[in-house]
Amino acid sequence: MTKKNIPRPTESELEILQVLWQHGPSTVRLVNDELSKRRDVGYTTTLKLLQLMHEKGIVTRDDSSRTHVYRPALREQETQGQLIDRLLEAAFGGSALKLVQQALGNRRTTREELDQIRDLLDNIDPHATPSATDTPDELA
Question: Between vectors from CA 78 to CA 126 and to CA 27, what angle results, nearest 5°?
Fold first, then answer.
């Protein structure tokens, strides 16, 4: 499947995909139980969504036994990348800087998250100079 052919999951479908990515192959019951922890959702609603997702190619279904088991047909990282690309273009005019500024400005970011972001940026840019907080051991 090319990037353009990857189905675009709806918000409800993304919730289900999150459950499948986290728990692996799952029955409708397990998916519904996990969704119900966050909001009120009926079993038949979850079943119908999974059936529609199967028709769209977003999930696969093993129906070799009475209880159907669903698996994500989309990889988590590819789906996230597609969604970010779409958001970046639609909401931020393609500017990664504006996206990051908005993301970091709209919620409290922990020290640990900021450190991880700094590490990520340092690894993306091999010409970045070490920060003043780096110790000689970290630079080796």
Answer: 140
